[in-house]
Specification:
Blueprint (H helix, E strand, L loop, with lengths): L1 H14 L16 E3 L5 E3 L4 E5 L11 H5 L7 E8 L19 H19 L4 E7 L3 E8 L2 H10 L10 E3 H11 L15 E8 L5 E3 L2 H11 L4 E8 L9 H11 L7 E4 L3 H10 L15 E5 L1 H4 L2
Amino acid sequence: MQESARGDEKKQAQDHPTRRLLVDTTDPTTDERHSGDGQASPSGENMVDEVSLSSDDSDLSGYTRRCVPRVNCPEKIILCVDLSPEMNESSFQSRTAPERTAYQFVRKASQIFIKNKSYLNPDHEFGIIVLEDEASWYQQFESNPDTICTVLEHLKPNEQETEDVFDMETLFQAIQSRISLPDLEDPSLPPPYVVRVILMYGRSLCTPVISTQAHQTLHNLLQSPYFFFDVIYVHQLPSENNKCESIYDTFCELDEDEVGYMLEVSRSTTRLFDHMATLLAHPLQRPKQRDTSYVLTPRESDENQ
């Protein structure tokens, strides 16, 4: 009976819509998004997203994480930017900028994210790690958003082909080598800061390899209630000719306790910018990904017109 119950739980996790690779159904010429029931929902500048937050402490994993106060403390955000040749492709469909590459859209979404995060709290800091054949630091932590945005502007994806696999251990070791996580005796006290990694992975043909050592390194980092690991996976339309589904599954398996957000997008620019807006929420104040609910509601000024 216990084995059957565990099997049912595993099946439910696999079937959950927030952790399943979806095919974008956005029509860029009409700028409509399709909801889960197949009906189109309007999208535009006159609409805002409202996030429904869950206050159930049972959603948090582990006693220590439950004790950490939900405060808007400064974040040290590490943007891990993929510079593989696949980021040079024009995979997104956009009627206003059809010639833009995947990297150009990711860069623009990242710059908007950085400026908005800095506006919410000027003490937030940003660092940049680039992903090529391996991961390496490119920009140390900096609180000036203009500096970080300029660095992103100067980065260019590689022209030469990369390896068929990407060793995630190089990323986790690079992160571990440059960060210092808060160590508080009383976890109920507000931390001086938290560290969040946002991995923007853009490869549909290159599988991320998670060795035993890599898994252990990430596990050690996630033992701290002040460390968070988010992913935005930018990929081609899933097909037999690529590895999109297995790559996304690999990222989801890294987040055993559902502490991070595992997001994915293939061709919809609207979905990409929505995902970056989702990540604006402070990791100590946001719910688990499966508890998020977004509802489009008109502004009061629009209702009065």
